[in-house]
Amino acid sequence: MHVAFQIGLFWSLLFGVTHGLHSSAEESKTDQGNEWPHHRGDPALQGLSNATLGNQISLQWVFKTGEFLKSSVVVSNGLAFVGSDLGVLHAINLQSGKEKWNFKTDMAIEAPPLVHNEMVYIGSTDGFLYALQADSGKLVWKYETDGEIMGAANYAVRPKTKDEVIVVGSYDNFVHCMNAKT
Fold this sequence. Notes:
mainly beta, 12% helix, Lipocalin
């Protein structure tokens, strides 16, 4: 019951905090091809894709992480991003199946990454949200919470200022909202 209450409280707070923020419905409807840069595909978390699979599906490659995965995969600009239980975010080339880069956090990555504006945002159970350059994995900034981050971050645009913000929940019982660039 306590866990159910916390989950309900989290979603209530998330809705309350982001209610005043704008997440473009038009953006959700645009043809993003084979892109899947967010958990559930888009900022509205619709879980829909405009991509078509065709009739013949075959395995192209396998990437062995050597570790357990709880994170879902997101795809952007020809790279697949996935976090691992050992705290490693892998960026994998979709054509070759080879790792382009990886980034190590201090604890497990259980949440799917968010890719937005050439940045990858990843929460870790070490309590940090990391902002990395998507093409290189270079750390741009990190933000500390007082609890584990086990859910995916999302982004929104403030209607009046047009500032982009990243929103993420933490096990410190807060929803955190920060400028996407800093």
